Amino acid sequence: MKRDYLSVTDLTKDETMALIMRAIELKKESYRGRELEGKTFALIFEKPSLRTRTTFEVAIYHLGGYPIYLAPGDIKLGVREPVKDVARNLDKWVDGIVARVFAQSTLEELGKYGKIPVINALSDYEHPCQALADFMTIFENAGTFKVNLSFIGDSNNVANSLMLLSAMLGTNFTLAHPAGYEPDTKVVEKAFELARESGALIKITTDPIEAAKNADFIYTDVWTSMGQEAEREKRLRDFQGYQVNRELLSYASPDVKVMHCLPAHRGEEITDDVIESEHSVVFQQAENRLHTEKALFLKLFE
Ligand code: CP
Ligand code: NVA
Fold first, then answer.
1. For a surface tag, which of 213, 223, 228, 302 has the fewest beta carbons within 10 Å of its beta carbon?
2. Which distant-in-sequence residues (6+ apart) come within 8 Å of 229 by Cβ?
3. Closest CA to 187 of 178, 173, 243, 47
């Protein structure tokens, strides 16, 4: 049975923890292997990328496989031909699909019609591979997942995956967002369901100071995600007061770590001095993308 990874909930808690521990080992060894020898992967991107494209290509190469990058203009998913046809072509030639798309439903359709595993490389709904690297980073810094993680800003794809994975792994998670930018109801319901099992505390507030208080990790992301550019001016106004800056950090633990999936808009959601400070672990997160993606390939193709 093939397995897709479209949401952080597509692996169980035990599988996710094992994947992160394996990624930590792979990182220590600067692992190179031949597990994907003879295998090819289609990397479909509807949006730009630095980290995701590079780390997936390198991860595949380090495991002996071959990546084929399909740029936003190449296949025009759903425009040049239906998504279900793309899936039924690709599965005759390649062994897996890594896709960065707008709609989560595009990934689900690729997964439904294609006979090969599909990995979510970011959609408007979730960024599960980012969350894997983020929790590896949390574990490397704290030695546990039992920490207080606060996400301050937009209830976006990155926040969704972090809320769900926190709820799964037993991490206390607070989301602080401006009024009018509430998180998706389905994500919140699922998070509360998972939290009942793990014991995680999930809080949702409009108060960034409340979220910063006692946080071990403060996470932020852009206020305007890819595809929302037309809303940029309104969002810049609506998110005033939600910037991660020195003043906000003063409410958190003195050794608070600051996280960001990158790319960052310095001077908007985060200040330059904070991202460059000793609190920042943003480049460790970026590095861990490579190792968690290798571990994900080993899991889905073992
Ligand atoms: N964090 C992340 O996914 O970065 P890219 O958009 O550059 O891939
Ligand atoms: N929320 C951002 C994440 C980029 C990695 C976006 O979707 O543009």
1. 302
2. none
3. 173
Angle, vertex CA 73, rays to CA 59 and CA 222, nearest 5: 65
Q: Which residues are catalytic?
A: 100, 127, 130, 221, 261, 289
Q: Whose CA is nearest to atom 2 of ligand 2?
A: 225
pLDDT tens track for 85-118: 999 999 999 999 999 999 999 999 999 999 999 9
Q: How many residues does the chain have?
A: 302
Mutate to test the pocket of ligand 2, among 261, 282, 285 (most ligand atoms within 8 A of CB): 261
The C-alpha atoms of residue 44 and residue 57 are separated, in whole angstroms, by 12
Same-domain pairing of 98 and 146: no
Q: What is the model's pLDDT at position 302?
A: 79
Is this structure's pTM higher than 0.85? yes
pLDDT in tens, 206-215: 999 999 999 9
Among all ligands shown, which has an atom nearest to the Cα of 131? 1
Residue 142, domain member (yes or no): yes
Q: Do 204 and 275 fall into the same domain?
A: yes
Domain hosting 27: range is 8-127+290-300
Structure tokens, 271: 């200040």
Mark whether 295 and 276 lie in a shared domain: no
Ligand nearest to the CA of 123: 2
Mutate to test the pocket of ligand 2, among 154, 175, 221 (most ligand atoms within 8 A of CB): 221
